[in-house]
Structures are given as C-alpha cells and as structure tokens.
Amino acid sequence: SVPLTFFAGIGGASRASVLVKGANYLEALADVDTVVFDKTGTLTEGRFALSEVQPAAGVAEGDLFRIAAALEDHSTHPIAQAISGAFTGDRPAVTQVEEVSGRGLRGQIDGQTALAGNARLLNEAGIQVPAVENIGSVVYVAHQGCYLGYFLVADKPKADAQAAIQGLKDQGIRETVMLTGDRQAVGQAIAARLGLDRVETELLPQDKVTALEKLQADKRRVAFVGDGLNDAPVLALADVGIAMGALGSDAAIEAADVVLMTDEPHKVAESIAIARRTRRIVW
Ligand code: ADP
Ligand code: MG
C-alpha cells in the first residue's frame, strides 16, 4: 500500500493534521478548481437527533418503534443511532437484514418484510407514504406491506462548515458542490445556509459517481470530500479524494488520497493553500 507522507505543512506543526499519500497528490491538490462535498458526516456532524415520531392512524407508537429499532440496530448509518437509541423496549428478531444503499434497511420480521428508510425504499415496495413538511430527514417504516409511520431526524452543520466554503471561495475555487442522498428540502436548506454554489439531492451512491464523472468530462479538476460511508467509489474516482479520518471508515482512509485527521472541512481550503504555497517554493 501507499506510504503516508506526513503533511506537516510549511506553516508549522499546528497544521499537522492532514495526511497526503504522496507528493503527486499535493500537486493535484494545488490544481483543484472544483470541490465537491458529501453532506452527512462531512459538512454536517453526522449525529442525528430524533425530533418527531408520527405513527400512522391506528398504529401504536410502541409498535412503530419496535419494528424500526429492530432494523436500525443492524445499521451503522448515523441515522440509525437516533432511532435505536431512543427506544429501550424489546425488539422482535430480525433475519435477512440488509442495508439498501442510499435508501435504508430491509429485513424479515415474523416471516414478513420490514422496511425503514426513505420514500424511495417504501415506494419501490409499492407502499405509499405521506409527504412530511417539517424540516429534517424522514425515516418511513413499513411491515407486512403496511405503512406504520415515520420518524423525523435532524443533523446539524459542523461549526466550521460555512467558513470552509467561504475559505474555498476566497481562494478562487470555481465551484463548490454538495451531493447527498437526503431529500431536497434538507439538502437545499443546508446548501443555502452554508453558501454552496450548487447542490444535488436524492442521489443514490451510483449517482454521486455519475455527478463526478460529468464534472471531469467538463475538464474540471475535482476534489471530493467524504466520510467513506457509501462514497468510497467517489473518493477513488476524484482527482483528489479527501476523507474524514476520525469519523470516517477504514474504506474511506483506504480509498482517499488525503485524510483530514480532525474531520474539519475548513482543512480542505487550508490544504489547497499549503499545496499551492509548496509548489511556489519548489518551483
Ligand atoms: P448521504 O448522501 O447524506 O451521505 P446516504 O447515501 O448515506 O446519505 O443515505 C441516503 C438516504 O438513505 C438517507 O438520507 C436516508 O433517507 C436513507 N437511509 C440510509 N441509511 C438509512 C438507515 N439506516 N435508516 C434510515 N434511512 C436510511
Ligand atoms: Mg454518506
């Protein structure tokens, strides 16, 4: 595997929290003109709090929770903890549980299919769900072909997320983009708040790859910043793949060219600045 270059930076040890896997990536970083971010865990904290529980008509809240928690216990997605952690009651046994990429969870409970995830997951199973106006990410739940209700969960931007975007603009980065599997209302609200140039929402992991390919076809030199949860292929495809190192998965650290050990998005602009300065000194 590739040896890690300890990127102490020109400006001293205070910046020594960015790992670059070789001088060629420092070079590529200096040339980046477009920075694409994943949302959850990258621009947001990746810690969801439960803000609403809404059982369907005639469904007991406890039954909604039992099915949802039974499934979410098997997930490592940051949404899962908000639901399974909020319910201490007994759960039924689940078999054949699987994460459905960009959608949520599917398993078998009492010999019947149980689902917890976004509208796409339930719609694909032929189950209609109500629109939810309140702001947040929605986890819909179904069992035995019946809609049981939803949970609203909310994450928040990292403390430095807005400064991270501003820092890139200050350096003349041509475009800042956020890609997310989350719904439009959530993605657009966060993008507006953080000042991103563009946002694409309701993407499947494969759609994130396609979005990056489009930018590269347009001759952009793209850095993609992610946490590796579902987005390792995008990290690998980008001209510079930048992973969150502390929260990020082993897959992210493996797939990335640059690792931010402190998980702070403002380190992206800082890294680009250091890479550009380094090039000026070397050349
Ligand atoms: P992001 O682009 O924010 O990283 P993901 O691709 O990880 O999002 O997930 C996209 C969407 O899939 C989430 O916003 C959520 O609606 C749904 N989802 C994924 N995993 C789960 C889960 N464990 N429970 C419920 N919903 C989930
Ligand atoms: Mg993700």
From TrEMBL:
The chain holds residues 424 to 706 of 770 of the full protein. Signal peptide: none annotated. It is found in: Cell membrane; Membrane. Belongs to the cation transport ATPase (P-type) (TC 3.A.3) family. Type IB subfamily. This is Cd(2+)-exporting ATPase. It comes from the Bacteria.
